[in-house]
Amino acid sequence: MFIEPNISGERRGWIEVICGSMFSGKTEELIRRLKRAKIANLKVEIFKPAIDVRYDETDVVSHDSNSIHSTPIDNSQTILLLANDVDIVGIDEAQFFDDEIINVCEKLALKGIRVIVAGLDMDFKGRPFGQMPKLLAIADFITKLHAICVRCGHLANISYRKSAEEGQVLLGEQDVYEPRCRKCYNEGQSRLVGSEHN
Ligand SMILES: Nc1ncnc2c1ncn2[C@@H]1O[C@H](COP(=O)(O)OP(=O)(O)O)[C@@H](O)[C@H]1O
Ligand SMILES: Cc1cn([C@H]2C[C@H](O)[C@@H](COP(=O)(O)O)O2)c(=O)[nH]c1=O
Ligand SMILES: [Zn+2]
């Protein structure tokens, strides 16, 4: 699928987006693609939002402890300054980036760079998260991954928040979130609504 097209010597870039719920394997898939590119001697730069220091200050780390070195940044435009002379740019936790991430990805792709973005498509309420809907719209290739529902074992498409915290951004792991299928998610939500009326 991701073969470098090289028609008449002209390098073309493109945008790949990997999305899904928490624990669906987005970071593992991002790391897998980037490590393969490194094996092919391609120059790779990886960025993550500076707020995401869950496992490591700098590295991108999956829930299964796979990791790759990255640069934490506060502002998506920084990517344009730091991604000089690279073949591939990887971006993790894209849902946390500012609105400019769209233009940044477009500019990189226009420069001939392969851009691989991973992020949550939905927040804990099932709302589209940050700039992810727009990234999915401009993507050339989309991969939607699923975790396993911790309640019933079916495919999970959403991250259920176990705490009563209402803010959209709340960093956490299994302590705060569990991946659930649509049915188990809805049962959990109904229980919450029910308890509000009691
Ligand atoms: N319920 C679950 N379903 C699938 N994988 C899970 C689950 N709970 C823990 N994991 C672990 O999470 C890993 C995926 O981690 P990661 O790539 O960091 O996911 P994401 O970036 O989508 O949150 C899996 O390989 C597995 O080891
Ligand atoms: C659903 C949801 C998640 N978050 C946070 C929780 C984690 O710190 C990250 C997602 O990490 P992952 O690599 O996809 O496992 O996002 C949040 O802030 N708000 C939410 O609604
Ligand atoms: Zn379920």
UniProtKB/TrEMBL annotation:
| EC number, as in UniProt | 2.7.1.21
Q: Which GO terms describe its molecular function?
A: ATP binding; thymidine kinase activity; zinc ion binding
UniProt-recorded name of the protein: Thymidine kinase
Q: Which reaction does it catalyse?
A: thymidine + ATP = dTMP + ADP + H(+)
Q: Which UniProt keywords apply?
A: ATP-binding, Cytoplasm, DNA synthesis, Kinase, Metal-binding, Nucleotide-binding, Transferase, Zinc
Residues that bind Zn(2+): C149, C152, C181, C184
Gene (name only): tdk
Say which family it is in: Belongs to the thymidine kinase family.
Q: Key word ATP-binding present in the record?
A: yes
- Where does it reside? Cytoplasm
Q: Which domain of life is it from?
A: Bacteria
Which residues of the sequence carry a binding annotation for ATP?
A: G20, S21, M22, F23, S24, G25, K26, T27, D92, E93, A94, Q95
The active site of this protein is located at: E93
Gene3D superfamilies documented for this protein: 3.30.60.20, P-loop containing nucleotide triphosphate hydrolases (3.40.50.300)
Root EC class: transferase
The record's GO CC annotations read: cytosol
User: Where is substrate annotated to bind?
Assistant: V169, L170, L171, G172, Y177
- Indicate the principal place this protein occupies in or around the cell: cytoplasm
Among the record's GO biological process terms, what is one? Answer: thymidine metabolic process
Q: Which InterPro entries match?
A: P-loop_NTPase, Thymidine_kinase, Thymidine_kinase_CS
**Assembly and interactions?**
Homotetramer.
